[in-house]
Amino acid sequence: MIQYKENPFYLTEEQVQWVESTYDSMSLEEKIGQLFCPIVFTKDEKELKELVETKHIGGMLYREGPGEELRQSHKILQDASKIPLLTASNLEYGGNGSAIEGTYYGREMLAAATGDVERAYQLGKGSRRIVLPESTGWIWKWIICMAVLPFRRSLRLQKKISASTRSSWTVP
């Protein structure tokens, strides 16, 4: 049994009841749809509504675009969905991975090349600050992705990051 009132959820009794009643009311097709998080390229209202209403997606990943267009698409999708959607953005190199007006900080390998854990931390911290105001639920990739790259220096920095700052990157 999932402990909704404990870490990491900390839900109230009312919130737990909403989660359980919502889940119980979903069809098998809706439950399967919740597993999918497609990349959203279109701005067309009809296509956006169809995506939510027929595929029952659980979330979406926005590609870079003008902030106002992203907000409009986000509103259309959320309004059409019976269940609030999770949203993601490619913010691993700064705020411009979502809204093109966002601030570019530097790709994760740029932060790793400095050999300074603080640079990697600042990249994650800055991206987190972008997540909340843009109503983006989570960042698609974190700097932690450096571990898959074939550079020993990155792997050494990855170990330092894991030990010292990863816990501060989680969004409350």
What coarse outline follows from CA principal-axis ratios? flat
Structural class: alpha/beta
Q: Could you tell me the number of beta strands? A: 4
Strand order of the largest sheet: 1-2-3-4
Largest sheet at a glance? 4 strands, parallel
**Can you count the helices?**
7
SSE string, helices as H and strands as E: HHEHEHEHHEH
Distance from first to last alpha carbon: 23 Å
Give a topology summary.
Layout: H1 13-25, H2 28-33, E1 39-40, H3 45-55, E2 59-62, H4 67-80, E3 86-89, H5 108-113, H6 117-131, E4 138-139, H7 152-164
Parallel strand pairs: 1-2, 2-3, 3-4
Helix pairs in contact: 3-4
Could you describe the 3D structure shown?
By secondary structure, the chain is of the alpha/beta class. The chain has seven helices and four strands. A four-stranded parallel β-sheet has the order 1-2-3-4, covered by helices on one side.
Descriptive key words:
single chain, 172 residues, alpha/beta, four-stranded parallel sheet, 7 helices, 4 strands, 7% strand, flat, disordered C terminus
Provide a short characterization of the protein structure.
The chain has 172 residues and is an alpha/beta fold. It has 7 helices and 4 strands; from the N terminus they run ααβαβαβααβα.
